[in-house]
Design brief:
single chain, about 350 residues, alpha/beta, two-stranded parallel ribbon, 7 helices, 11 strands
Length: about 350
């Protein structure tokens, strides 16, 4: 056999073996090159050799599949606006579904924005009003007592229904209203010492039937409101209260009042109609200039004894107590003050 034919057969056999993994061919599938009736020169042989390589290896080279992007990973790692990107895609999937590609293409960015805003106005739930912190987080609530001391509040906070004692000392409260204690019938003690209270509505405390102790000391009060009937202690010292700021019947019906502290104010006279239940009366350091026989006693009843009074303080006032001897004849103890 010619040398070129031999080389051609050998080359063909080698490529077939590489393709099929078999060392020999079956007679039925023997390559045609075994039966070529002609011989090839060197140039032709080179051409045939190149053609065979192309025919054998081209079917083996399959195109690589396009890379599939992991959209979830892309959201997480490829952008900082994951929520915005995800929401935009969900919007397009929901509101452009069912539209033709042409309709989707014709939807402008402005239209998308308007549609998105419309959707937000319909589906977003209304915001809850949570501007104020709950009272028992801002203050301390313990067994019916609420302690709101030195927390810089400027109004009375909403109180639990079962509250009986409120201590709101040293804050920035400027006004007290009836709404502050609406539906709070169990309150027994209120302490607003050291605030900035200038005004109190008249009916603020009258709706509290069980209130026994009320402290409004160290504020900016000019007058007193109506007081509840079961009050036993009232403290309004260190204010700016004048005599005209106390009504004639303010204390008249307080038959359980035992302790009255009105010292360090601007009173020009002793408040009228003080109840006989009083044990301690502090009126020191005011502007009191006069006292009558009916201030503490009864001018028409020389036998009258005010036996419950234990202490009356009038020092620091411009009055000379020695000039009013009949004003104290019903008392067991003389008031504290200047007599000469």
């Amino acid at each position: 056999m010619h040398r070129h034919e031999h080389l051609l057969r050998k080359t063909t056999k080698t490529f077939k073996t590489a393709l099929t993994g078999k060392e020999s061919f079956s007679p039925a599938r023997r390559p045609l090159v075994y039966y070529l009736p002609f011989t090839l020169n060197a140039a032709e042989m080179k051409t045939v050799h190149s053609t065979l390589l192309l025919l054998l290896f081209v079917p083996l080279a399959e195109p690589a599949p396009p890379p599939q992007l992991d959209t979830h990973s892309n959201y997480e790692y490829a952008t900082d606006n994951y929520e915005e990107t995800k929401f935009s895609q969900d919007y397009e999937d929901e509101y452009l579904d069912g539209k033709t590609p042409e309709e989707k293409e014709t939807l402008t960015p402005d239209e998308k924005s308007l549609q998105l805003q419309k959707d937000e106005s319909v589906t977003l739930p209304p915001k809850k009003e949570t501007d104020e912190m709950p009272t028992c987080l801002l203050c301390v609530c313990l067994s019916g007592s609420v302690y709101c001391e030195e927390v810089d509040i400027d109004a009375v906070p909403p109180l639990p229904k079962e509250s009986a004692y409120l201590y709101a000392r040293f804050n920035k409260i400027k006004k007290l209203t009836a709404k502050d204690f609406a539906d709070m019938p169990n309150l027994r003690r209120l302490d607003f010492t050291g605030n900035l209270i200038e005004d109190i509505e008249d009916n603020t405390f009258s709706q509290l039937p069980l209130l026994e102790e009320l402290s409004l000391a160290e504020n900016q009060l000019l007058r007193l409101p109506v007081l509840p009937p079961k009050l036993t202690l009232f403290n309004a010292k260190h204010n700016k209260i004048k005599s005209k700021g106390i009504k004639a019947n303010t204390f008249k019906k307080l038959n359980k009042l035992s302790f009255l502290y009105l010292d360090h104010n601007d009173l020009e006279s002793v408040p009228p109609n003080l109840p006989e239940s009083l044990r301690v009366i502090h009126l020191q350091f005011n502007s009191i200039t006069s006292i009558t026989d009916d201030t503490f006693c009864k001018a028409n009843d020389t036998r009258y004894i005010r036996d419950r009074v234990e202490e009356i303080r009038l020092e620091g006032n411009p009055i000379i107590l020695g000039k009013h001897p009949n004003s104290f004849i019903c008392l067991k103890r003389l008031p504290v003050g200047s007599y000469i």
